Amino acid sequence: MSSPFISQQSFFKTNTQYRGRFAPSPSGDLHFGSLVAALGSFLQAKKNDGQWFVRIEDIDKPREQLGAAEQILATLNSFGMHWDTDSLTHSPTDNQRCIVQSQRIERYEHVLEHLITLDRIYACQCTRKQIKQLGDVYTGTCRDLCLPFKGNALRVQLPNVITAFEDVLHGMTHSAHSFAHEDFIVKRKDDLFAYQLVVVVDDIDQGITEVVRGADIMPLTCRQLSLYQLFDVPPPSYLHLPLAVNQSGLKLSKQNHASPINSANPKPELIKAFEFLSLPIHEQLQDLTVDELILWGIKHWDVSRLPKQQEIYVP
Ligand SMILES: [Zn+2]
User: How far apart are the CA of 136 and the centre of ligand 1, in A?
Assistant: First the structure.
């Protein structure tokens, strides 16, 4: 079976333009933490004369909140972050002109079929509780049991495991050995595709050259790089931004009841996000329009000035 990424390979060979992305999950409105991730990825793309795409990561349908995707896109527009589109990143039927994961199930099935043909996929019937009892790392209990795929979780067995990568901001970053070597789940028992697999397929299909995202996803990067290795596709570079946390050190998130950002009055939050990302803000910025603020942000964006902490408290 030929590689499911052949057309993308030729794209990589002919296209050297920077391509970045922001990939929110529609489980609620954008909050300050997700604004920082959106803004950081946007400014980095635009500073590099690149394109910036938005992808709705709604693969986990049970967690989706109705109308949240539309709300997120409207908020991005009101903050002056307008995304790019091209033939690689949207289907003719897609009226939002961005990639929506739930519309790509067939594509993920196709890639999974490819991995099955390569004999890299096996079914696993272990429960979360059983794995926890064995030290919380899956050690391949079901690898040779030849269990039926139907009704079981599907795991990938990697021929080459990546355990470290060079982060644009943090330099050489290592993953815990046992975590990197785990045969992780690519399709869940409930038939939903796992984030690890779809994020890699999407980034490859969109021709993403650099991933800018929150430091909370940093530990997963090596697993994703192992998949790139398996698919024989050159990986993007990675830049992990500091995470906005609350007083208890918890990530600002919908689950932790972070308040949504106010898209009716974007300027104060935008300036606060600039400050979080170490841009040299000053009083006169208040007088600029949102679009002027965004242009100022692109001009003053400087990766070398970014804070290197993985977490920053936001009052
Ligand atoms: Zn198992």
Answer: 12
Interval 246-288: pLDDT, tens: 888 787 776 666 788 888 999 999 999 999 999 999 999 999 9
Ligand 1 centroid – CA 38 distance (Å): 37
What's the rounded Cα separation, in Å, for the pair 141 and 76?
Answer: 45
> What is the distance between the alpha carbons of residues 276 and 52, in angstroms, rounded to a whole number?
21
Domains and CATH numbers, the chain: 6-105+198-307 (3.40.50.620)
The total of other beta-carbon atoms located within 10 Å of residue 9's CB is 14
* Rounded distance from Cα 153 to ligand 1 centre (Å): 8
In 3-state terms the chain splits into helix, strand, coil percentages (rounded to 5) of 40, 15, 45
Residues across the chain: 315
pLDDT digits (tens, 9 = 90+) for 29-47: 899 999 999 999 999 999 9
User: Ligand 1 center to residue 121 CA distance, Å?
Assistant: 12
**Distance between CA atoms of 170 and 147, rounded to whole angstroms?**
41
Residue 138 CB neighbour total at 10 angstroms: 22
